[in-house]
TrEMBL record:
InterPro entries per the UniProt record, alphabetical: P-loop_NTPase
Classification lineage: Bacteria, Pseudomonadati, Pseudomonadota, Betaproteobacteria, Burkholderiales
Organism: Pseudoduganella buxea
Biased composition range(s): Polar residues: 1-11
Spans annotated as Disordered: 1-21
Protein's name in the database: Helicase
Top-level taxon of origin: Bacteria
Length: 740
């Protein structure tokens, strides 16, 4: 896999035209975050004998060849060990300087800050004898540095895609390293597809890992990654206790970012506009809504905790939420009712954030129960076979309506998350008056110590509602007691006795075992029949809804009573104030009556003034409209046009009559002589001119009539203006005199 074949993976896509908008800013934030993940590689472990970490330069210094190191390992971990060899270690200052040079950035003064930590580019796993296990990890640093250098000299954003994922460079390099190990007799060839995995002793032709092997692997990784550091540091090897066969799990990647691959997927989804509202809110970075101080805005607080805002469920704890906690829960459940979004609650330790979280859990449980109860039979909640590849058991697809109700508690503080997860199922977290049992025997079994054979004598957990997950070890520690304990047949008298013990560990499937046959099935799960459980839940849900509605009505009534009492108190205060100012009740009444009369008079004056003003304004508007329709002099001008039109019509009639007195003779008309044709043409012209003159005369007469009517209207409106103006002036003077 030569480096010259790598650049085809990197396709730089230019950003859209510059311009500030939320979508582009979020995309830039994702690219920056992704660059940080790729360019902040994981350092190798510090060299420390107490931690079984050594530097190695020669084959003799490798711990499987060094009896002194083996003695230390035996003292620290016992007789069985395993190793991780960290190679291709790049000096931190080296790759920072090379990256800054490629990006055109100037040098920085390393004396002003801690030096960058070194980065290992290859990790090779071996057993205690130095035989490789096939576990090889390749850092993304060479690829990231290659991308940085390829992006040098242009303004396009850096792109790091192509390393992770199916068919990515990481997978191809790891496969190629495995082939190289097979070639160098470090690893047995993989079995053919479909062939069983070989068992028994290792191939005798295989040999332990040497420094020369490591050098070959490191050289290949740098060549395939497309970048080579200017200098490397001494390699390191870390020893640790080898797990037992039943405790073996694939180790986590010690080199690469936990987030880089997810960030690439999020970036692609974001570019396609396929992101949820919660992620969009997280990436937006915009100012939130204006802060509301609930200590001051009592109305907002009261509205937020009104009964109508209450979720249909609460945590059955020994104490209810305090006011601020209930406000936060109500607001969160309401704002995130569609299942998407972002909601923040801030508070120092001990302020009840975990207590509030329990009510959120209760709300989510009830939302899912609302969906569950819609299924006539439990089996209808499952669909087709999921068809999981290379999985020997059937797995049925869950109805989509039942998905999305899980809760993940995540934190940078693993201890805090573990405490919350362990606290939720505890019997101490629920009221003594509430009898809850949701597979409590399984919950106690899951929480039992790793080597325990029985549960404790007292029930410590009310239900199987939370589990400590995260790492592969924690997931295995949960899955084994949750699903597998108690399912194997007893193979010894002790196992038989333990299987009959009432406090034996119970897995979920063990509660459904049926040793007595279908006719005498007496399962241990304790669950109600489905139809009875549905009816019970529906009755409880209806009862809650009815109580909530009743409480909301009562709250509205109380609020109305409170408002009425406030109004009455305010009215009483006003009466006291008026009584204190009045010499006597009668004078107060008289003064009030006078005030009423004056007010009525003032109202009448205002109404009179406004009415007069409106009438005057209407008249003025009408006059202006009439003047616009009939300007001064327009009737006289139109009369002159009419007279001219009549004169023209009379003249044409007279000329036409003279023309008619001298017609051509009969024969001239019969034979259409030239004189006859000229006479007829002139007669037709007279007819046309007479029609046009008549039309003009009629139009002028009609226009004259309209203008004369308009002039009469203008004159009438002018006459009406004077009394209206006088009335308006009188009303205005009266209002001013009254102080209005």
């Amino acid at each position: 896999m030569p480096a010259t074949n790598i650049p085809s993976i990197l396709q730089v896509t230019p950003d859209p035209a510059p311009g500030r908008d939320a979508h582009q800013e979020a995309a830039a934030a994702l690219r920056f975050w992704e660059a940080l993940e790729y360019l902040t590689p994981q350092p190798p472990p510090d060299v420390k004998v107490d931690d079984s970490v050594w530097e190695v330069r020669t084959d003799a210094e490798l711990p499987w060849n060094d009896s002194r190191k083996q003695a230390i390992l035996t003292r620290q971990h016992g007789p069985d060990w395993r190793f991780q060899l960290f190679a291709g270690i790049v000096d931190g200052t080296c790759y920072v300087e090379q990256a800054r040079a490629a990006l055109g950035a100037g040098p920085i003064d390393m004396e002003e800050q801690p030096p960058p930590k070194p980065a290992a580019c290859v990790v090779i796993g071996t057993n205690g004898a130095g035989m490789v296990t096939g576990q090889v990890f390749v850092s993304s640093l060479p690829w990231a540095m290659y991308c940085v250098e390829q992006g040098s000299g242009n303004d396009a954003p850096l792109r790091f895609g192509g390393f992770f994922g199916l068919g990515g460079l990481e997978e191809r390099m790891r496969n190629a390293v495995a082939d190289l190990m097979v070639e160098r007799k470090l690893l047995a060839p993989p079995p053919a597809p479909g062939a069983p995995k070989p068992e028994g002793p290792l191939d005798p032709s295989l040999r332990p890992l040497t420094m020369e092997d490591v050098s070959a692997i490191v050289e290949f990784v740098f060549d395939a990654g497309g970048w080579r550091p200017a200098r490397q540091m001494t390699w390191r090897v870390r020893g640790s206790k080898a797990p037992k066969e039943d405790e073996k799990v694939a180790p986590d990647d010690p080199l690469n970012s936990f987030y880089a691959e997810d960030l690439a997927r999020i970036g692609a989804r974001h570019a396609a506009g396929d992101t949820g509202s919660g992620l969009r809110a997280y990436l937006a970075g915009e100012d939130g809504t204006e802060r509301i101080d609930l200590d001051q805005d009592i109305g907002a607080l009261a509205g937020g905790v009104a009964p109508a805002r209450l979720p249909p469920a609460c945590w059955p704890g020994k104490h209810p939420l305090v006011l601020a906690q209930q406000f936060a829960v109500n607001t969160l459940v309401r704002e995130l009712a569609d299942g998407a979004g972002l909601f923040a609650v801030n508070g120092p330790p001990g302020t009840g954030k975990t207590t509030m979280l329990k009510d959120i859990v209760a709300a989510v449980v009830v939302r899912r129960a609302d969906v569950l109860v819609t299924f006539d039979y439990p089996v209808k909640a499952f669909g087709d076979d999921a068809g999981i590849e290379d999985y020997g058991y059937k797995a049925w697809q869950l109805d989509p309506r039942l998905r999305g109700f899980g809760i993940v508690v995540a934190s940078a503080n693993n201890g805090a998350v573990e405490n919350i997860t362990k606290e939720l199922p505890g019997v101490k977290e629920i009221s003594d008056e509430v009898a809850l049992d949701y597979f409590s025997s399984v919950a106690d079994s899951v929480a039992a110590p790793p080597k325990a054979k029985r549960r404790g004598p007292r029930r410590e957990r009310w239900g199987l509602i939370a589990a400590v997950l995260g790492s592969k070890t924690r997931r295995r520690e949960f899955v084994n007691p949750f699903w597998f304990v108690g399912m194997s047949p007893a193979s010894s008298p002790d196992d038989v006795a333990l299987a009959a013990h009432p406090l034996r560990l119970r897995s979920l499937p063990s509660l459904f075992k049926n040793p007595n046959g279908p006719e005498n099935w007496q399962p241990d799960h304790g669950a109600m029949p489905w139809q009875a459980a549905r009816e019970r839940y529906r009755a409880a849900r209806q009862r809650v809804d009815a109580l909530t509605a009743e409480a909301a009505t009562l709250a509205d009534t109380i609020d109305s009573f409170r408002l009425a009492r406030q109004a009455r108190s305010a009215a009483a205060g006003e009466i006291v104030a008026l009584s204190a100012l009045a010499a006597s009740r009668q004078r107060a009444v008289d003064a009030a009556a006078v005030a009423v009369i004056e007010a009525e008079q003032r109202i009448a004056l205002v109404a009179r003034r406004d009415g007069a003003s409106a009438a005057h304004a209407t008249a003025e508007a009408g006059l202006a409209e009439a003047i616009l329709a009939c300007p001064a002099g327009a009737p006289e001008a139109m009369a002159r046009q009419h007279d001219a039109a009549k004169a023209t019509l009379a003249r044409l009639r007279e000329e036409h009559e003279r023309h008619l007195r001298h017609p051509p003779g009969f024969l001239a008309q019969l034979f259409r002589t030239q004189r006859s044709q000229r006479w007829n043409a002139r007669d037709a012209a007279f007819e046309e001119q007479l029609r046009e003159a008549g039309t003009r005369c009629d139009d002028a007469a009609a226009a004259l009539a309209l203008l004369q009517a308009g002039a009469a209207r203008v004159a009438a409106l002018r006459l009406s203006q004077a009394p209206l103006a006088a009335a308006c002036a009188q009303a205005d003077a009266a209002a001013r005199q009254a102080g209005l």
